[in-house]
Backbone:
């Protein structure tokens, strides 16, 4: 067994023989031409042919992968006719007496180098596009037919890096996955693999040897591993993973775009918890309805000093605009307890979980709080923002935090900086105190989101970091569940919504209970969205409601 | 001559797709020459690759000039195009 490691850029697991992409010989002939006008015409004919072929490919891509993929080839068509490119070729042929193949290759090189020299990865990668169209025209000029895969069985396709036209011309039914020695996450191999939904691993370098051709490989696009002639144990493990992924994919296909609605018509919003702007990708991929908890701590953890307003603004704005108008609940700084940062210079505490943390720090350091609230309101102009304060125990804390919001809004108005007037302000319910006075808190805010991890820790007096508490740390403890119901009922009395953004939200054993309580939202990790949706859709709240709520309220612990 | 300035909001800047669409759009206006200027550099907007090689990014302000033809209408159409795509 040989394992080589690359970078996984399209998830999935596939097994099959390794096959090296067969490319037509690239040996280029160079010679001087006598009939220069005739040679120019030969180029013009090949150019027209290339544009025609690309038109066919564009239509094929449109059918297989949609308008976006088709646009790539339409852009290639335009590149074939690019004025500078064409002028260079004309000069090489008419003035330099070069043959058309050499003229096209050299003109392509000039453009490719110009792209490769750019400082932006996206534009750098466009050098491949220019080489691709030049290769196509040269291929037509020299009478080479673009090749595919000469194999009767589906294969794992290996190459250096496939050009876009090569990828689209492949017979998809013959390909199980891609492995390339070069390439980047934004290369066409990666993009098309993701679109088609097969694994792709790039950048394996010279570990990918021709001598492996024909041998059985397993590729894991999640981890980037390419296993050649896997031993039994590895094979079994990867095949199991493959099954799970396929099942998941099936679930995705079935449930994507479906509503989170129970059999008897009760709706619940299923949102996602994220910790980084890049996670938005996973939210959209798993069909999350919004973001119910965006932990802003990453901003503080990524910096050596307090992050500036501008830095925060850009990060919030990116998430809001990437989510395209779907609700994004951003939790203000939740540092302290298990998340410590040096530059905060927090004094050492005996019991940090019961110490200076989260909103407490913000209220004690109004300047830092002010910076974050300003960045948030400025970003609110770019999407659907809600702001959430963590670790609330008293009404006055909420009032003081809201005062900061009002102050910031007044400043922005005075400065003529745009912000949204529709930003909801809510709190986390994660202390027993907040749950018990949730009737009062509900009058102050627009929503509640229950942080079950901390709520459990504080209610049961069980340290969540302590792994030795075992059966004492019971996330299903009736005290916790009763507090959740209490907060939910009090929210509804004041006409505001109530959700859960802790681990418990994704606990499928409790979904029926949460629906029975009438919770409005569950925010879970992106991977949990679809299994949760499935559970919701299978539930008939009318059947379970009375029994579950009755059992929770009853003094009889056997119910 | 008619001109306007525009600040790019698209996260990738003037990338292949909008550049291609823009060239397509401008080809429809016979008789007008459209140039795009960023800083010291100016390109004919019909030159797809040169346009992309300007590396115009989100936040960059570009000047668009229309010369010849129905300048007023062409400039308005291109401005609308920028707003919708970039």
Residues:
């Amino acid at each position: 067994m040989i394992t080589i490691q690359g970078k996984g850029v399209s998830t999935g697991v596939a097994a099959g023989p390794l096959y090296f992409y067969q490319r037509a010989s690239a040996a280029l002939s160079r010679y001087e031409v006598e009939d220069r006008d005739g040679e120019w015409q030969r180029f013009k004919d090949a150019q027209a042919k290339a544009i025609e072929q690309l038109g066919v490919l564009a239509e094929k891509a449109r059918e297989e992968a949609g308008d976006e993929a088709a646009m790539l080839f339409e852009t290639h068509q335009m590149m074939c006719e690019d004025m500078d490119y064409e002028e260079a070729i004309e000069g090489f042929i008419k003035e330099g007496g070069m043959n058309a193949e050499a003229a096209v290759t050299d003109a392509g090189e000039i453009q490719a180098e110009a792209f490769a020299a750019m400082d932006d990865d996206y534009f750098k990668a466009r050098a491949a596009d220019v080489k691709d169209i030049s290769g196509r025209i040269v291929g037509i000029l020299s009478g080479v037919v673009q090749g595919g895969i000469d194999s009767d069985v589906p294969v794992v396709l290996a190459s250096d890096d496939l050009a876009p036209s090569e990828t689209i011309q492949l017979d998809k039914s013959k390909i199980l996955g891609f492995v390339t020695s070069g390439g980047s996450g934004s290369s066409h191999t990666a993009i098309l693999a993701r679109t088609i939904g097969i694994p792709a691993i790039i950048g394996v370098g010279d570990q990918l040897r021709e001598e492996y051709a024909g041998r059985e490989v397993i590729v894991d696009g999640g981890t980037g591993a390419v296993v050649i002639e896997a031993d039994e144990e590895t094979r079994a493990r990867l095949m199991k993973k493959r099954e799970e992924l396929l099942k998941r994919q099936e679930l995705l296909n079935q449930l994507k775009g479906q509503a989170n609605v129970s059999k008897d018509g009760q709706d619940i919003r299923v949102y996602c918890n994220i910790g980084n702007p890049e996670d938005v990708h996973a939210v959209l991929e798993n069909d999350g309805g919004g973001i119910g908890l965006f932990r802003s701590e990453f901003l503080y953890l990524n910096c050596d000093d307090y992050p500036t307003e501008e830095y925060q603004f850009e990060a919030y704005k990116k998430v809001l605009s990437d989510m395209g108008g779907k609700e994004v609940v951003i939790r203000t700084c939740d540092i302290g307890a298990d998340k410590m940062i040096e530059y905060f210079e927090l004094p050492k505490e005996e019991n940090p979980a019961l110490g200076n943390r989260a909103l407490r720090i913000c209220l004690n350091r109004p300047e830092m709080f002010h910076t974050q609230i300003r960045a948030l309101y400025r970003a609110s102009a770019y999407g659907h923002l809600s702001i959430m304060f963590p670790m609330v125990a008293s009404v006055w804390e909420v009032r003081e935090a809201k005062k900061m919001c009002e102050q910031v809004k007044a400043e922005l108005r005075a400065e003529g900086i745009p912000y949204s007037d529709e930003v909801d302000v809510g709190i986390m319910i994660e202390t027993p105190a907040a749950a018990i006075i949730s009737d009062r808190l509900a009058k102050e805010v627009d929503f509640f989101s229950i942080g079950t991890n901390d709520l459990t820790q504080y209610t049961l007096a069980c340290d969540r970091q302590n792994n030795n508490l075992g059966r004492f740390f019971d996330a299903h403890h009736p005290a916790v569940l009763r507090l959740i119901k209490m907060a939910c009922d009090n929210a509804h009395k004041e006409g505001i919504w109530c959700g859960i953004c802790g681990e418990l939200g994704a606990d499928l054993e409790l979904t029926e209970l949460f629906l029975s309580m009438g919770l409005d939202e569950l925010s879970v990790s992106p991977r949990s969205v679809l299994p949760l949706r499935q559970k919701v859709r299978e539930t008939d709240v009318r059947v379970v409601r009375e029994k579950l709520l009755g059992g929770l309220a009853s003094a009889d612990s056997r119910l | 001559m008619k001109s306007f300035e525009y600040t790019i909001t698209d996260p990738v800047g003037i990338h292949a797709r909008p550049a291609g669409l823009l060239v397509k759009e401008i080809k429809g206006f016979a008789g007008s020459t459209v140039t795009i200027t960023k800083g010291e550099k100016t390109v004919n907007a019909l030159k797809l690759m040169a346009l992309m090689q300007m590396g115009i990014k989100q936040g960059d302000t570009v000047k668009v000039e229309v010369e010849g033809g129905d300048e007023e209408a062409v400039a308005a159409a291109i401005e609308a195009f920028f707003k919708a795509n970039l």
Remarks:
- Chain B is about 40% helix and 25% strand.
